[in-house]
Design goal:
The complex is a heterodimer of chains A (323) and B (438). By secondary structure, chain A is an alpha+beta fold. Helix content of chain A is 39%, strand content 23%. In chain A, helix 1 crosses helix 12. In chain B, 46% of the residues lie in helices and 13% in strands. Chain B is built from 16 helices and 14 strands. In chain B, helix 4 packs across helix 11 and helix 12 runs parallel beside helix 14. Chain B starts with a helix and ends with a helix. At the A-B interface, helix 1, helix 6 and helix 8 of A face helix 1, helix 13, helix 14 and helix 16 of B.
Chain lengths: 323, 438
């Protein structure tokens, strides 16, 4: 099924606006090359009107972060009745909320590093600060401190000792009113992208992020171009690749994702895989991991965009799907 | 915060729904449209063809005569032949760096320095060394220590970059004795100095101090001027004066960069100066900015927590505020944008080495009084929230760290008349300092 006209949703007010604009610019090029008519919409107050006026039959959601990736825009698209790329409302909500993701993983018996999560209210009104020493003892240092809902690496801090924790918490609370403290698992960082078609969901070649040694403890630098090397496909034993693929597919299903997603995990030194998080709308920029993985699987960017749109239209005609 | 994430955040600050105290925008709304129309009309009638034509690389003589007049207003004597007209003051920083710096060469500047100079120095791979400031500007004693140390390492800085008057971002002004000493150092060591002076005429109180260029007579001091803050940044015109050999290289560099600056803009300046009212306009601007500065200082006193400190500029466009060291202003900006739709420049943008993380630059020229007061109220709100939250983390064994922090933070008191000696002398990042202390 080919779309007649695509509403390309981009930008918006989220902190990841610029990444979204870069993802969308690449999708625009692909749509032009595919000869598919489209209208670009910078997501804002007039979104509902813009969608209705667009006369599009499908929306390509090239949004990242709050609003665009957390189910909000998806809910509006449901109301307007326009099919859209990627996961539905519930799938987006589950991915965006790292705490919810981890609780679901635990319940399902899937591996994820130990963690504790707190809201601002817990500290302000319930004296959670008194519990910090016990938490630090349980998790051991270093501890990773993250905002519960922030798509990119923004606000992720690394606390090497108890002295670092308050500052890291303040930073993480700048991005969300809930944060999580997570045990740091030493190991290799792997990203498994998933792509769905009529035959089901399929894991793409694994990407490994290899930060330069000196930046190993600086999470922020890890994502700076040139400071991190991305290897695709990652050099892994076949059985590990198979386990990573299976695990990623399980996470995709558990969270109720649709169309595509990316699951980030760590391969620990004891050869165990631990899931860190899932991205409902992974980046589509020149340096993003999902397009790299697709390329390694022989899927060009245009084909990737085309498949995402086809899946969106397929869902709209199929009986109601989960998420 | 990584620099690419910071760039992304800064892009959001320009969104219309955001009150931005981040930019360095002068208020162009007070420029009379009739004057604009009269000048452009005159260009159309008198010199349409030449306004649309290329001009000389060094600029039109008539424009340079206006520049001589502007410099004279601050007590500087110069000759049209010593001036090259540039595309804004920013091009001067670029051309001087391009002319003088090979990768690895040393540039000395203030800590904090003009955030717009940092990427320029980086792009030519300069080794930037930053000298601490206090309320009297660059610590010239520390400069001398640094120069001694470099001597021992047999390294010679290519030039010293300074904004001595109403510094961007700190808002402080280099004192008269330090100006004298800096020029002496330049002579003793035969060192070039680039004096960046966009704000000298925007003085809201006190007596003007002689620019370094006036003290030195143009021997070792290169001078960067601009029409951006006294007329308009949109016309993109600045200038540089420098010793002959350097100036020739700058001209070559400019030829390669853009052949010449806009002929149309230069003619605009010429006709505007012919009217003879440029100084009145600057006075009007000073009146507007003085009011806005006072509004910002009052708002800071009202809405910022007592743990914060800030500078008290007598001119220019900026106030530099420093928060407790557990707050990273890059992360704070994310919260401020997300929850309060307000923006500032995080302090780390003014450093090359990751310092400045707890400071911020606040601009008081770009928003009106209501916007400034509301903007400061909103920033104060997020700062106070973070401080209140931080206080809830402190279990018994953390309190020692907290005491240490408070002992090192001078309580801010805008009415405090003691010199703001440690206001811009920023502590290193919290983690490092705690490590030293424990």
């Amino acid at each position: 099924m080919t779309p007649r006209r695509v509403a390309l949703l981009r930008g918006g007010p989220s902190l990841e606006r610029q990444v979204s604009l870069r993802s969308a610019a690449r999708v625009e090029d692909a749509l032009e090359r595919l000869g598919i008519d489209f209208v670009s919409i910078d997501v804002g107050r007039s979104l509902v009107d813009d969608l209705r006026a667009s006369e599009a039959d499908v929306a390509f959601v090239a949004l990242h972060g709050r609003g665009g990736e957390d189910g909000t825009v998806q809910e509006l698209l449901e109301i307007v009745g326009m099919p859209y790329t990627g996961s539905g409302v519930l799938g987006c909500m589950r991915c965006m909320d790292k705490v919810l993701t981890k609780h679901m993983l635990l319940e399902e018996g899937l591996p994820t590093p130990d963690f504790f999560a707190f809201s601002e209210i817990a500290f302000k009104e319930l004296g959670a600060g008194e519990a910090l020493p016990a938490i630090e003892e349980r998790l051991g240092f270093p501890v990773v401190v993250k905002p519960a809902a922030q798509g990119s690496a923004l606000g992720i801090k690394f606390a090497r000792s108890a002295d670092d924790v308050p500052e890291a918490l303040i930073a993480a609370f700048s991005y969300d009113d809930r944060v999580l403290l997570e045990r740091h698992v030493e190991g290799r960082e792997l990203a498994v992208s998933l792509l769905e078609d009529e035959s089901g969901v399929r894991a793409l070649p694994v990407v490994e992020a290899k930060p330069e040694q000196e930046y190993f403890y600086d999470f922020e630098a890890r994502y700076e171009i040139g400071k991190t090397e991305f290897l695709c496909p990652a050099d892994l034993p076949d059985d590990v690749t198979a386990r990573a693929h299976d695990l990623a597919v399980s996470v995709f299903r558990l969270l109720g994702c649709y169309g595509f997603a990316r699951v980030d995990m760590i391969l620990s030194e004891s050869d165990e895989l631990q899931v860190l998080e899932a991205q409902a709308i992974p980046g589509l920029t020149e340096t993003s991991l999902l397009p790299q993985a697709a390329e390694a699987a022989g899927i060009r960017f245009e084909q990737l965009v085309e498949r995402m749109l086809e899946q969106a239209l397929a869902r709209s005609t199929a009986p109601a799907t989960a998420g | 915060m990584r620099s690419s994430a910071m760039r992304d955040l800064m892009e959001i600050t320009a969104r219309p729904e955001v009150i931005s105290l981040a930019g360095g925008l002068p208020d162009t709304s007070s420029f009379p449209p009739e004057t604009f129309a009269a000048i452009t009309g005159k260009i159309a009638r008198q010199s349409c063809a030449s306004a649309l034509q290329y001009g000389p690389t060094e600029g039109f003589t008539q424009t340079k005569e206006c520049i001589v007049e502007v410099m004279a207003a601050e007590g500087m004597r110069t000759d049209v032949d010593d001036i090259v007209v540039t595309t804004g003051g920013q091009q001067v920083i670029d051309l001087v760096t391009k002319t003088l710096i090979d990768p690895g060469d040393v540039v000395i500047c203030e800590a904090p320095t003009y955030p717009g100079a940092v990427p320029t120095f980086s792009s030519y791979e300069a080794d930037v060394i930053q000298i601490e400031m206090d309320s009297d500007g660059m610590r010239v004693d520390l400069l001398e220590e640094t120069l001694e140390r470099l001597d021992h390492e047999q390294r010679r800085p290519k030039f010293i970059y300074t904004v001595p008057t109403f510094q961007n971002p700190a808002g402080v002004t280099l004192s008269a004795p330090r100006r004298k000493r800096l020029v002496e150092i330049a002579h003793e060591r035969e060192l070039l100095v680039l004096e960046d002076n966009p704000y000298g005429l925007l003085r809201y109180e006190g007596e003007p101090l002689a620019p370094l260029y006036a003290l030195d007579g143009g021997e070792y001091v290169m001078y960067l001027g601009t029409f951006s803050k006294i007329l308009s940044p949109g016309i993109r015109l600045g200038w540089v004066t420098a010793p002959g050999p350097v100036l020739s290289k700058i001209k070559l560099g400019k030829q390669a960069a853009d052949l010449c600056s806009s002929s149309l803009a230069q003619q605009f300046v010429e006709l505007y100066f012919e009217e003879g009212r440029w100084r009145h306009y600057v006075q009007d601007l000073c009146g507007v900015y003085r009011q806005r500065r006072d509004a910002m200082l009052d708002a800071l006193a009202e809405f910022f927590p007592h743990e914060a400190q800030w500078t008290q500029p007598s001119g220019g466009l900026f106030i530099w505020a420093t928060l407790p060291d557990f707050i990273d202003t890059g992360d704070l900006l994310a919260k401020a944008l997300r929850e309060e739709r307000v923006a500032f420049v995080p302090g780390s943008a003014a450093y090359v080495d990751g310092r400045g993380g707890s400071s911020m630059r606040l601009n008081f020229s770009g928003a009106d009084v209501d916007g400034i007061v509301e903007g400061i109220r909103r920033i104060g709100k997020v700062v106070n929230e973070q401080i209140a939250l931080f206080s809830t983390f402190a279990g018994p064994e953390r309190r020692t760290g907290d005491d240490r922090r408070q002992a090192s933070t001078r309580p801010a008191a805008p009415e405090d008349t003691t010199p703001l000696a440690d206001v811009v002398e920023l502590p290193r990042r919290g983690g490092e300092r705690r490590a030293q202390g424990s």
